[in-house]
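Why do we care about 3D structure at all? Because function follows from shape, and shape follows, mostly, from sequence. That is the central idea of this module. The next example makes it concrete: a single protein chain, its amino acid sequence, and then its structure expressed as tokens.
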Amino acid sequence: MKSRSYAQGRPVALFVLGNGRSGTSALAQVLALSGAALPPGLLGATSENPRGFFEPRAVIHLNQAILHDHGTSGYDTSLVPHDDGRFGVERNAAWVAKVRDYLGGLPSAPLVVIKEPKTTTVSGIWFEAARQAGFDVAAVIAVRHPDEIIGSLAKRANHQNYVDSSPELTCAWWLKYSLLAERDTRDVPRVFVEYANLLEDWRLEVKRIATALNVDLDVRDEAAVDAFLTPELRHHRTRGEVTEPFGTDWIRTVYETLSTAARDEPWSPSELDCVYAAYGASERGFAKAFDDCRRYSNVDRLLPPFLVKLGLETLAVVHRRKGTWA
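And the structure:
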């Protein structure tokens, strides 16, 4: 939790960050029912999220365009685009201006909630644009047990086959988004909210958010929040050990650290820095190895066994089958 005073009279842009399926939609709507404003033009309810997403269609489009312009996507598991400077504010003046124009055109409100998971991967651009548009910036970071997200995405795949993902891929997404959400908000007021805690006692979590971020949240209709946050929102419940598909303790370390932060207990980002560095080094090393492996494999496919045999026997004949060629 990190609190800070804002400039007097400036509205606050409150960004809901974190991995998709972590309760970001629930957080956004609870904040809206607590007095914050959601932008117009939202992505509506679907079979995979019957309560609604509460994320602006324009923000989805902007994030998609920014990511594609930088040769990546919201489904990319790589940290390389976030380490090579391509998302630096100084190199993205045009995108900052486009986001600033969008934010500047929103209806006036003292507290505006911006929720779209891919914002987590380009938050630096959004934060700078918000400041240029006259906002102060704050962040709520959604935390959820990664095994619950694995189950949630598996259920989603029943409705949309194209998003079917393995537990390994889901864990890689979760790891990347969780690390970026924490790492890129260290200089703004922020608070961590675990999805299970929100469903168990939303009043406490709203109070935590208001206190940590020094914002006014006034729940005028508690019955509306109770009606929205029903047990049906949580289809998957996990309290045990996390899945570790990479032969490391990365997932456990990150989840336990963020869960600790969501309980307002002492924690240190140093362990997350270690995971970030290890993930990045492993990714770069294996990416190079896999690229080289594919190159060798592609050459090997051009050499059918009969041609290899012919070549070897030809060499043997050239050497008269003597000495080491006997």
